[in-house]
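assembly run, all chains below
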Amino acid sequence: MPAQMSETAKLSHQLVELYEKLSSWEQDVVKNSGLSTAQMHTIEIVGHGAHGGGALRMKDLAKKMGVTTGTLTVMIDRLEQQELLKRTPHETDRRSYLIALTEKGQGLFNEHHQYHLRLTEEITATLSTEEQALFSGVLEKVIGQM
Amino acid sequence: MPAQMSETAKLSHQLVELYEKLSSWEQDVVKNSGLSTAQMHTIEIVGHGAHGGGALRMKDLAKKMGVTTGTLTVMIDRLEQQELLKRTPHETDRRSYLIALTEKGQGLFNEHHQYHLRLTEEITATLSTEEQALFSGVLEKVIGQM
DNA sequence: ACAAACATCTTGACATTCAAACTATATCCC
DNA sequence: GGGATATAGTTTGAATGTCAAGATGTTTGT
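ok done. output:
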Protein backbone atom coordinates (compact mmCIF):
# COMPACT_ATOMS: atom_id res chain seq x y z
CA MET A 1 0.00 0.00 0.00
CA PRO A 2 2.19 2.77 -1.29
CA ALA A 3 -0.14 5.69 -0.55
CA GLN A 4 -0.48 4.68 3.07
CA MET A 5 3.26 4.04 3.25
CA SER A 6 4.12 7.43 1.93
CA GLU A 7 1.96 9.07 4.57
CA THR A 8 3.76 7.07 7.24
CA ALA A 9 7.12 8.07 5.82
CA LYS A 10 6.12 11.71 5.90
CA LEU A 11 4.91 11.50 9.48
CA SER A 12 8.04 9.64 10.52
CA HIS A 13 10.16 12.36 9.01
CA GLN A 14 8.14 15.05 10.75
CA LEU A 15 8.45 13.33 14.10
CA VAL A 16 12.21 13.15 13.68
CA GLU A 17 12.31 16.78 12.70
CA LEU A 18 10.17 17.82 15.66
CA TYR A 19 12.41 15.81 17.95
CA GLU A 20 15.56 17.38 16.53
CA LYS A 21 14.21 20.87 16.95
CA LEU A 22 12.99 20.31 20.48
CA SER A 23 16.37 18.82 21.27
CA SER A 24 18.39 21.73 19.98
CA TRP A 25 15.99 24.22 21.57
CA GLU A 26 16.48 22.53 24.93
CA GLN A 27 20.24 22.55 24.45
CA ASP A 28 20.25 26.28 23.75
CA VAL A 29 18.07 27.07 26.75
CA VAL A 30 20.06 24.89 29.12
CA LYS A 31 23.40 26.27 27.97
CA ASN A 32 22.61 29.59 29.64
CA SER A 33 21.89 27.97 32.98
CA GLY A 34 25.35 26.66 33.85
CA LEU A 35 24.07 23.09 34.03
CA SER A 36 24.58 20.25 31.58
CA THR A 37 21.55 18.92 29.73
CA ALA A 38 21.77 15.70 31.74
CA GLN A 39 21.67 17.71 34.96
CA MET A 40 18.72 19.81 33.81
CA HIS A 41 16.97 16.66 32.72
CA THR A 42 17.36 15.32 36.24
CA ILE A 43 15.93 18.52 37.67
CA GLU A 44 12.98 18.25 35.31
CA ILE A 45 12.18 14.66 36.18
CA VAL A 46 12.46 15.29 39.91
CA GLY A 47 10.41 18.45 39.61
CA HIS A 48 7.70 16.71 37.66
CA GLY A 49 7.66 13.86 40.14
CA ALA A 50 7.06 16.42 42.86
CA HIS A 51 3.88 17.58 41.10
CA GLY A 52 2.64 14.13 40.28
CA GLY A 53 3.45 11.13 42.40
CA GLY A 54 5.71 12.64 45.06
CA ALA A 55 9.43 12.23 45.65
CA LEU A 56 11.30 9.41 43.93
CA ARG A 57 13.86 6.93 45.19
CA MET A 58 17.23 6.62 43.48
CA LYS A 59 16.26 3.39 41.80
CA ASP A 60 13.02 4.73 40.35
CA LEU A 61 14.69 7.88 39.20
CA ALA A 62 17.47 5.88 37.53
CA LYS A 63 14.94 3.71 35.76
CA LYS A 64 12.93 6.71 34.64
CA MET A 65 16.07 8.31 33.24
CA GLY A 66 17.44 5.16 31.64
CA VAL A 67 20.72 5.12 33.58
CA THR A 68 22.20 2.90 36.26
CA THR A 69 22.08 3.85 39.93
CA GLY A 70 25.85 4.21 39.87
CA THR A 71 25.51 6.95 37.29
CA LEU A 72 22.77 8.57 39.27
CA THR A 73 24.80 8.61 42.47
CA VAL A 74 27.40 10.97 41.06
CA MET A 75 24.74 13.01 39.26
CA ILE A 76 22.84 13.56 42.51
CA ASP A 77 26.10 14.23 44.35
CA ARG A 78 26.89 17.10 41.99
CA LEU A 79 23.40 18.57 42.10
CA GLU A 80 23.36 18.26 45.87
CA GLN A 81 26.66 20.17 46.00
CA GLN A 82 24.96 22.93 44.04
CA GLU A 83 22.07 22.80 46.50
CA LEU A 84 19.53 22.20 43.75
CA LEU A 85 18.18 19.02 45.29
CA LYS A 86 18.64 16.91 48.37
CA ARG A 87 18.45 13.38 49.64
CA THR A 88 16.09 12.77 52.52
CA PRO A 89 15.81 9.40 54.25
CA HIS A 90 12.89 7.25 53.25
CA GLU A 91 10.43 7.08 56.12
CA THR A 92 10.04 3.33 56.30
CA ASP A 93 12.89 1.92 54.22
CA ARG A 94 16.23 2.88 55.65
CA ARG A 95 18.08 1.71 52.55
CA SER A 96 16.40 4.33 50.45
CA TYR A 97 16.51 8.07 49.96
CA LEU A 98 13.86 10.26 48.54
CA ILE A 99 15.17 12.80 46.06
CA ALA A 100 13.51 16.21 46.14
CA LEU A 101 14.20 19.71 44.90
CA THR A 102 15.46 22.33 47.30
CA GLU A 103 13.88 25.76 47.19
CA LYS A 104 16.65 26.86 44.87
CA GLY A 105 16.07 23.80 42.70
CA GLN A 106 12.34 24.46 42.65
CA GLY A 107 13.05 27.99 41.49
CA LEU A 108 15.20 26.71 38.65
CA PHE A 109 12.55 24.18 37.73
CA ASN A 110 9.82 26.82 37.66
CA GLU A 111 11.93 29.08 35.52
CA HIS A 112 12.63 26.28 33.08
CA HIS A 113 8.98 25.34 33.03
CA GLN A 114 8.14 28.89 32.00
CA TYR A 115 10.49 28.51 29.06
CA HIS A 116 8.58 25.42 28.03
CA LEU A 117 5.27 27.24 28.24
CA ARG A 118 6.62 30.10 26.19
CA LEU A 119 7.94 27.73 23.53
CA THR A 120 4.60 25.96 23.42
CA GLU A 121 2.81 29.24 22.94
CA GLU A 122 5.15 30.19 20.14
CA ILE A 123 4.88 26.99 18.19
CA THR A 124 1.10 26.84 18.51
CA ALA A 125 0.65 30.50 17.67
CA THR A 126 -0.54 29.77 14.15
CA LEU A 127 -3.08 27.17 15.26
CA SER A 128 -6.70 27.99 15.81
CA THR A 129 -8.32 26.98 19.09
CA GLU A 130 -9.91 24.02 17.34
CA GLU A 131 -6.61 22.93 15.86
CA GLN A 132 -4.94 23.16 19.25
CA ALA A 133 -7.61 21.02 20.85
CA LEU A 134 -7.34 18.59 17.99
CA PHE A 135 -3.57 18.47 18.21
CA SER A 136 -3.82 17.82 21.90
CA GLY A 137 -6.30 15.02 21.36
CA VAL A 138 -4.13 13.35 18.76
CA LEU A 139 -1.06 13.69 20.97
CA GLU A 140 -2.95 12.01 23.77
CA LYS A 141 -3.77 9.06 21.55
CA VAL A 142 -0.23 8.89 20.20
CA ILE A 143 1.36 9.03 23.63
CA GLY A 144 -1.04 6.38 24.82
CA GLN A 145 0.20 4.09 22.06
CA MET A 146 3.83 4.23 23.14
CA MET B 1 -6.58 34.18 30.17
CA PRO B 2 -6.67 31.09 32.32
CA ALA B 3 -8.57 28.81 29.96
CA GLN B 4 -6.12 29.54 27.16
CA MET B 5 -3.28 29.17 29.60
CA SER B 6 -4.43 25.82 30.79
CA GLU B 7 -4.59 24.53 27.23
CA THR B 8 -1.02 25.69 26.67
CA ALA B 9 0.09 23.99 29.88
CA LYS B 10 -1.53 20.76 28.77
CA LEU B 11 0.10 20.90 25.36
CA SER B 12 3.46 21.72 26.89
CA HIS B 13 3.19 18.72 29.13
CA GLN B 14 2.23 16.50 26.23
CA LEU B 15 5.15 17.70 24.16
CA VAL B 16 7.52 16.91 27.01
CA GLU B 17 5.95 13.51 27.42
CA LEU B 18 6.20 12.77 23.71
CA TYR B 19 9.81 13.85 23.74
CA GLU B 20 10.61 11.64 26.72
CA LYS B 21 9.01 8.62 25.14
CA LEU B 22 10.69 9.11 21.80
CA SER B 23 13.94 9.53 23.64
CA SER B 24 13.67 6.33 25.62
CA TRP B 25 12.42 4.43 22.58
CA GLU B 26 15.47 5.55 20.63
CA GLN B 27 17.73 4.55 23.50
CA ASP B 28 16.22 1.07 23.62
CA VAL B 29 16.52 0.57 19.88
CA VAL B 30 20.07 1.85 19.70
CA LYS B 31 21.24 -0.23 22.66
CA ASN B 32 21.01 -3.38 20.55
CA SER B 33 23.23 -1.97 17.82
CA GLY B 34 26.49 -1.65 19.74
CA LEU B 35 26.61 2.09 19.10
CA SER B 36 26.00 4.93 21.51
CA THR B 37 22.99 7.14 20.92
CA ALA B 38 25.32 9.99 19.93
CA GLN B 39 26.97 7.76 17.35
CA MET B 40 23.64 6.63 15.92
CA HIS B 41 22.54 10.22 15.84
CA THR B 42 25.58 11.03 13.73
CA ILE B 43 24.76 8.21 11.35
CA GLU B 44 21.21 9.52 11.07
CA ILE B 45 22.26 13.08 10.29
CA VAL B 46 24.85 12.02 7.75
CA GLY B 47 22.39 9.58 6.20
CA HIS B 48 19.73 12.21 5.92
CA GLY B 49 22.18 14.68 4.47
CA ALA B 50 22.96 12.13 1.80
CA HIS B 51 19.32 12.11 0.71
CA GLY B 52 18.89 15.84 0.86
CA GLY B 53 21.71 18.25 0.25
CA GLY B 54 24.65 15.92 -0.25
CA ALA B 55 27.69 15.23 1.92
CA LEU B 56 28.51 17.57 4.78
CA ARG B 57 31.77 19.08 5.97
CA MET B 58 32.88 18.59 9.57
CA LYS B 59 31.95 22.10 10.52
CA ASP B 60 28.44 21.93 9.13
CA LEU B 61 27.87 18.55 10.69
CA ALA B 62 29.08 19.84 14.05
CA LYS B 63 26.74 22.80 13.85
CA LYS B 64 23.81 20.63 12.85
CA MET B 65 24.49 18.37 15.83
CA GLY B 66 25.15 21.14 18.31
CA VAL B 67 28.67 20.01 19.23
CA THR B 68 32.11 21.49 18.71
CA THR B 69 34.34 20.34 15.89
CA GLY B 70 36.74 18.91 18.45
CA THR B 71 34.01 16.60 19.68
CA LEU B 72 33.12 15.64 16.15
CA THR B 73 36.70 14.77 15.25
CA VAL B 74 36.83 11.92 17.74
CA MET B 75 33.26 10.89 16.94
CA ILE B 76 34.10 10.54 13.25
CA ASP B 77 37.38 8.81 14.11
CA ARG B 78 35.47 6.10 15.97
CA LEU B 79 32.83 5.66 13.31
CA GLU B 80 35.49 5.54 10.63
CA GLN B 81 37.28 2.80 12.60
CA GLN B 82 34.03 0.85 12.49
CA GLU B 83 33.84 1.50 8.75
CA LEU B 84 30.40 3.07 9.04
CA LEU B 85 31.43 6.30 7.40
CA LYS B 86 34.43 7.89 5.78
CA ARG B 87 36.16 11.19 5.20
CA THR B 88 36.77 12.15 1.61
CA PRO B 89 38.76 15.25 0.63
CA HIS B 90 36.75 18.28 -0.39
CA GLU B 91 37.20 18.91 -4.08
CA THR B 92 38.12 22.57 -3.92
CA ASP B 93 38.95 23.25 -0.24
CA ARG B 94 41.89 21.21 0.93
CA ARG B 95 41.23 22.05 4.56
CA SER B 96 37.89 20.27 4.48
CA TYR B 97 36.58 16.74 4.34
CA LEU B 98 33.20 15.55 3.21
CA ILE B 99 31.64 13.02 5.52
CA ALA B 100 29.64 10.22 3.91
CA LEU B 101 28.28 6.82 4.85
CA THR B 102 30.05 3.69 3.69
CA GLU B 103 27.98 0.87 2.29
CA LYS B 104 27.94 -0.68 5.74
CA GLY B 105 26.89 2.63 7.26
CA GLN B 106 24.16 3.01 4.67
CA GLY B 107 22.89 -0.43 5.60
CA LEU B 108 22.74 0.50 9.26
CA PHE B 109 20.99 3.75 8.41
CA ASN B 110 18.37 1.95 6.31
CA GLU B 111 17.75 -0.56 9.05
CA HIS B 112 17.32 2.17 11.63
CA HIS B 113 15.03 4.06 9.30
CA GLN B 114 12.81 1.00 9.11
CA TYR B 115 12.54 1.04 12.90
CA HIS B 116 11.35 4.63 12.69
CA LEU B 117 8.73 3.74 10.12
CA ARG B 118 7.52 0.85 12.23
CA LEU B 119 7.26 3.04 15.32
CA THR B 120 5.36 5.65 13.36
CA GLU B 121 2.92 3.03 12.15
CA GLU B 122 2.41 1.79 15.67
CA ILE B 123 1.77 5.12 17.26
CA THR B 124 -0.60 6.24 14.52
CA ALA B 125 -2.45 2.95 14.45
CA THR B 126 -5.42 4.34 16.33
CA LEU B 127 -5.75 7.38 14.10
CA SER B 128 -8.12 7.52 11.18
CA THR B 129 -6.77 8.58 7.80
CA GLU B 130 -8.27 12.03 8.35
CA GLU B 131 -6.66 12.33 11.76
CA GLN B 132 -3.30 11.32 10.35
CA ALA B 133 -3.49 13.91 7.62
CA LEU B 134 -4.58 16.47 10.15
CA PHE B 135 -1.80 15.55 12.53
CA SER B 136 0.70 15.85 9.72
CA GLY B 137 -0.64 19.26 8.77
CA VAL B 138 -0.42 20.55 12.31
CA LEU B 139 3.07 19.16 12.70
CA GLU B 140 4.11 20.98 9.57
CA LYS B 141 2.86 24.26 10.98
CA VAL B 142 4.43 23.62 14.35
CA ILE B 143 7.80 22.68 12.88
CA GLY B 144 7.67 25.75 10.69
CA GLN B 145 7.29 27.92 13.78
CA MET B 146 10.49 26.68 15.40
C1' DA C 1 17.23 -16.17 63.29
C1' DC C 2 19.00 -16.83 58.83
C1' DA C 3 19.29 -16.62 53.98
C1' DA C 4 18.00 -14.33 50.02
C1' DA C 5 16.75 -10.23 47.84
C1' DC C 6 17.19 -5.36 47.67
C1' DA C 7 18.83 -0.16 47.57
C1' DT C 8 22.50 2.45 47.45
C1' DC C 9 27.28 3.65 47.26
C1' DT C 10 32.10 3.04 45.73
C1' DT C 11 35.62 1.99 42.56
C1' DG C 12 37.99 1.53 38.23
C1' DA C 13 37.93 1.92 33.47
C1' DC C 14 36.35 4.31 29.40
C1' DA C 15 33.64 7.45 26.64
C1' DT C 16 32.01 12.06 25.84
C1' DT C 17 32.41 16.74 25.85
C1' DC C 18 34.30 21.46 25.69
C1' DA C 19 37.63 25.26 25.39
C1' DA C 20 41.88 26.55 23.90
C1' DA C 21 46.10 25.90 21.50
C1' DC C 22 47.91 24.25 17.12
C1' DT C 23 48.53 23.12 11.95
C1' DA C 24 47.40 23.67 7.38
C1' DT C 25 44.89 26.01 3.88
C1' DA C 26 42.20 29.85 1.98
C1' DT C 27 40.99 34.66 1.38
C1' DC C 28 41.62 39.55 1.66
C1' DC C 29 43.89 43.68 0.83
C1' DC C 30 47.58 46.48 -0.51
C1' DG D 1 52.61 38.58 -5.40
C1' DG D 2 52.86 38.54 -0.40
C1' DG D 3 51.79 39.38 4.34
C1' DA D 4 47.81 39.70 7.50
C1' DT D 5 43.72 37.59 8.74
C1' DA D 6 40.17 34.11 8.70
C1' DT D 7 38.69 29.35 8.45
C1' DA D 8 38.68 23.90 8.79
C1' DG D 9 40.05 20.42 11.27
C1' DT D 10 42.97 18.18 14.88
C1' DT D 11 45.09 17.77 19.36
C1' DT D 12 45.36 18.38 24.26
C1' DG D 13 43.92 18.76 29.04
C1' DA D 14 40.34 18.77 32.27
C1' DA D 15 35.69 17.91 33.77
C1' DT D 16 31.65 15.13 33.32
C1' DG D 17 28.97 10.96 32.21
C1' DT D 18 28.72 6.20 31.97
C1' DC D 19 28.70 1.32 33.22
C1' DA D 20 29.85 -3.13 35.50
C1' DA D 21 31.21 -5.25 39.51
C1' DG D 22 31.86 -5.40 44.23
C1' DA D 23 30.92 -3.61 49.07
C1' DT D 24 27.71 -2.23 52.76
C1' DG D 25 23.78 -1.96 55.20
C1' DT D 26 18.51 -3.12 55.17
C1' DT D 27 14.42 -5.67 54.45
C1' DT D 28 11.72 -9.80 53.61
C1' DG D 29 10.36 -14.56 53.56
C1' DT D 30 10.53 -18.79 55.80
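Residues 36, 38, 67-68, 70-71, 74-75, 78, 93-96 of chain B lie near DNA strand C (CB under 10 Å from a C1').

Helices of chain B lie at 2-31, 37-51, 58-65, 69-81, 103-123, 129-145.

not gonna interpret more than that til we talk
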